[in-house]
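okkk here we go again. third time trying to get the zinc ion bound version out, last two times i messed up the smiles copy paste (missing a bracket lol). double checked this time i swear
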Amino acid sequence: MIIGIDVGNTNMTGALASDDGKRIATLRRKSDRAGGAKAGVKLISEIIAALQKRAAAKGGSVRRVGVGFGGPVDFERGVALLSHQNPGWANTPLRDQLQKRFDIPVALDNDANAGTLGEWRFGAGRGVNDLLYVNIGTGIGGGVIANGALVRGAQNLAGEIGHIIVRRDGPLCTCGKHGCLEGCASGSAIGRRGSEALGRKVNGKEVFVLAAKGNTTAQGVLDGVIEDLAQGLGVGIGLLNPALIIIGGGLSEAPEKLFLQPLRRAVPRYCLAEAAPRLRIEPAQLRYDAGVMGAVALAMS
Ligand SMILES: [Zn+2]
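finally!!
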């Protein structure tokens, strides 16, 4: 049996699964957001120990653990480099700490790569050898499957499509650059662009609600967002020639008519004409389970 752990900003979720990834049990606990790595590792260990007991009760044992972490990870060294949301995680050798404690092989990766593996193995990407996964929520993360394998790159930064620059004079991004895709087309960016255009504070979801009611200002904001997103995806298409782009995160819940349909129409404007006709753009399937099933997939890979 295997265990997948999703180390999120607000929750830690663990799943016990069979060797081929069928889920047997799930455990969810609130993260101690101020407690840093010390409290975090303790909580992860409690979840693993509890799931080990479940495995033993079923006459099995846990052979591998996969951990998806909400921040950049040095994959080769198994080190969590930083959590963007919660303090006290910098340079935590999480993989070795857990391996030492449980004497089980552990794989640690960032949640974007884990999410990519999860959608590939269990979700919208099953059976597809070349795909781009784009998670659009508060920020924009992503991952790449090429020739049937996850692409990590030299520093585990492959697939970071959120920091492709789509407007040189665009808004300042969390990474310190201007005009990143994340700053132009994430859920928070839609809220900010909507607030500027409408002259009052709205969030991303409200922009969609207004557009659905026929508000032309909100619709204009979405038109701009979709154009920026299509431009960013066009860069990915030029590099990877994917058969499928999977859109995950909060934006995958937006009404298809207002988001995915216009996005599918816009993308061919930003890539080679030959690359577009057979390219599918589909919503992610794992939704709330994306993190933990991604960690299960990571344990399997
Ligand atoms: Zn950026």
